[in-house]
Write a structure and sequence with these properties.
Helix 1 packs across helix 11 and helix 3 runs parallel beside helix 4. This protein folds into two domains: 115 residues, 2-Layer Sandwich (ornithine cyclodeaminase, domain 1); 174 residues, Rossmann fold, CATH 3.40.50.720. It has an eight-stranded parallel sheet, sandwiched between helices. The chain has a six-stranded mixed sheet with strand order 1-6-5-4-3-2. It has eleven helices and 14 strands. The protein is 36% helix and 23% strand. With 298 residues, it is of the alpha/beta class.
Length: 298
Amino acid sequence: MTIYLDDAAVRRRLSIEKLLPAVRQALIDLSSGRVRQPLRMVMDLAAEQSLLFLKPVIAGELLAVKLITQVPANAERGLPTMLATVVLMEASTGRTLAVMEATGLTALRTAAVSAVGIDALASPGAKVLALLGSGALARTHAQALRAVRPISQIRVWSRDARNVEACSTEIGALAAKSAEEAVRHADIVCTLTNAAQPVLKGAWLKEGAVVAAVGAVRPGWRELDDAAMRNVVIADSREAALQEAGDVILSGASVYAEIGEILAGTVPRPAPGTTVIFKPLGQAIVDAAAARLAYETQ
């Protein structure tokens, strides 16, 4: 029988602690060729910078399809800028197992991917975190990064000062007056914006910092400038990064490795002290792993 899970039910069934190992294995499986996953389809919607993403994947006995809308103007309506639904099916028959609202799932699994990447790439003693962005992803990233590193200070910046204050209060962070103030001397930086033009300059980065560049999900959009992108770049999917990531495409950066290759040990980690840009683009296999957890958890 098909079950339906609303966003609250999905959030109750998921936790960062459960997601981290599931996401880690999903990224290894992706780089190892153990899943069938085409590039996502993207459709422009009527509103400015509004998009629909369609993401299918077959992973073992499961078929999952995720639909996502990204509508920046929703912030003014009191709605999430990103809304999502996942349909989980039996791959052999096409039978629908579950339909679930996936807005919370997306925020949690996105942060889990960043945390898995940073756990593999950052110094064990990394403790100062900068978040560029003050929405739902900033909150889940604070939670996820605290699970993998001894975070002693978080700095938050975005263009909306009221959101910065609210987010900082909620997660126990400092409100930065500028992106540069947030980033200077930070060990870990997460860019979580809807920006189409760079908000992070490489000149601000501490040597040895790790950046999780989560936004800029279209070929013409950027969060990082050329100087930042001259550092070692690691993606969740090399194919996706070269075709979908404006930060990579417009800077002409090369991708050193996929994070799944590093996690599996088939490609060596960058040398200690290397400044690294981790570019995740939100792979369908990770959505499937999170949806499976929510489906199987009672």
